[in-house]
Amino acid sequence: MIEPHAPAPPGNTPPRGGPARLPVRPGTGRFLVLACVFVCAACGLVYELELVALASYLIGDSVTQASVVLSVMVFAMGIGSLVAKRLRRHAATGFAALEVLLALVGGCSALALYAVFAWTGNWGGLWANGPRCLLVAFSLAIGLLIGAEVPLLMELIQRVRRQDAGGAVADLFAADYVGALVGGLAFPFLLLPFLGQLTSSLLTGAVNVVAGGSLVLGLFRRDLGPRARWILLTANLAVLGVLACAAALVDDFERAARHAVYGDDVRVARQTDVQEVVLTGGTRGRPLDLFLDGRLRVGGRDERRYHEALVHPAMNGPHARVLILGGGDGLAAREVLRHPRVRRVDIVELDAGVVRLARSDPALSRLNEHALGDARVHVAIADAFTWLRTVPRASYDVVVCDLPDPGITASTKLYSQEFYGLARRALAPGGRLAVHAGRVSSRPRAFWTAATTIRAAGLRVSAYRVAARDAGFATGPDRSAGTSRAPHDWGFVLAAAGRRPALGLAPGKPSPRTLTTARLAADARAAERTRIRGLRVSTLVHPRY
């Protein structure tokens, strides 16, 4: 065993366990190693969160995507730690190579995922499981590289200054966990809002490669021969060049990918504090489509059929005071305001950006007939669940839930028993609740789970479905303007306390263009044929969708 201050034996790499030939004092060297651990841990967590966020956006069901990414990555980290044991004799060189690969793979992962999604359509045929396979592949690769860092960093910190194993582990993991905290907070509060998903991953890769390369080529350069130093320097510069070029072209890439996903008629594309909002069409006779986080929420060809079916059955009774949960596009409010006895309409929308577009975009405001400018309409920017908790009892004659599909994880709480209990409390005697509950033909279990849950909240229900025409729009996990625009139908539930609400339309005018009482009766019979019995109630702690 070599004494702490004995000269190293000849050769490029001292034996494992020997002291490193440092250009600084051991205390300074130890600090620099821990600083590198801190930075690499922050970068590693950003890669994880980037994969989770992008997979949730592209594939849907954020709980599943987070579970897949984190479980695969943790498993791969264990494998990577085992594999790295063979590299401990060449710890400096091995660590530098790992950081080059990690920066390249992690930094480009979001770009690659989005590119494959954008240019392979709706993942049909050969790419039916494309997003999940690619997600698993990136999670596995990044996890292997992150896991391999730990044994090599342990070796490097011990070679800077030998200490007991317990103390070295404590120092290493303290720096690692603090770095992970910083990375975890930086991603949602700094990187994502200011740089976006693609640029933030590229910047993280650049920071990663600079940190790893600087540590090895600066602190441990005497452990490397001239050839090894040049190879590592060239590899680091090459990866930095790739990441820099990608960052310079990322805006052009996003525009091209957006056109591939949404078509060539994109008029508005902006990232709000809540989601990505894209408007296509609406000019030169082309129907307007509104996408929220890639899901087609308003399809101009068929939106009237959807909104009339959602609103008008609920207006068959007292309707002076109406609450719309969601509906920031103003289209449900347009149908409500057709009834002359309406005195007040409250809209609770989470995304202020959607409301601004509904008021300012010429095509969208024309489609909603400037409903948000009506003096009777009052808009609150808030979470629907939280807002309902503050509403006095018996405040509204009608509550309309114009919300995303229950299959989307973010909206699951808005289809829970607790949520419907709050909605029931807000209803005046004789009031009615109208709920969009997803597709009946393709997702009958989710639809009838919503009906069962509403009933469990103390309301009587009448379920019905409305068939879409040849070019409808999906309110569920649809992602493409191309092949999957038209669901077979939309499912709705009309509910009331006490007596089961009768499906019908308010007498006299206005008469919906696409709906009649006879048609509603047929729609109810069609929905009843799909009924699934014995379903469990969905609650906040036991979501069933």
Automatic annotation (TrEMBL):
EC number: 2.5.1.16
Annotated GO MF terms: spermidine synthase activity
Keywords: Cell membrane, Membrane, Polyamine biosynthesis, Spermidine biosynthesis, Transferase, Transmembrane, Transmembrane helix
Binding of S-methyl-5'-thioadenosine, residues: 275, 349, 383-384
Ranges where the PABS domain occurs: 228-497
SUPFAM superfamilies: MFS general substrate transporter (SSF103473), S-adenosyl-L-methionine-dependent methyltransferases (SSF53335)
Locations listed in the record: Cell membrane
Membrane topology: Multi-pass membrane protein
Annotated catalysed reactions: S-adenosyl 3-(methylsulfanyl)propylamine + putrescine = S-methyl-5'-thioadenosine + spermidine + H(+)
Top enzyme category: transferase
UniProt: spermidine binding residues: 307, 329
Pathway: Amine and polyamine biosynthesis; spermidine biosynthesis; spermidine from putrescine: step 1/1
Keyword Cell membrane attributed: yes
Pfam families per record: Spermine_synth
TM helices/strands, residue ranges: 31-59, 65-84, 96-119, 134-157, 169-192, 198-218, 230-250
Entry's family note: Belongs to the spermidine/spermine synthase family.
NCBIfam families according to UniProt: MFS_SpdSyn, PRK03612.1
Subunit-level organization: Homodimer or homotetramer.
Protein's job: Catalyzes the irreversible transfer of a propylamine group from the amino donor S-adenosylmethioninamine (decarboxy-AdoMet) to putrescine (1,4-diaminobutane) to yield spermidine.
Name this polypeptide is given: Polyamine aminopropyltransferase
Annotated source species: Streptomyces actuosus
Biological classification of the source: Bacteria, Bacillati, Actinomycetota, Actinomycetes, Kitasatosporales
The encoding gene: speE
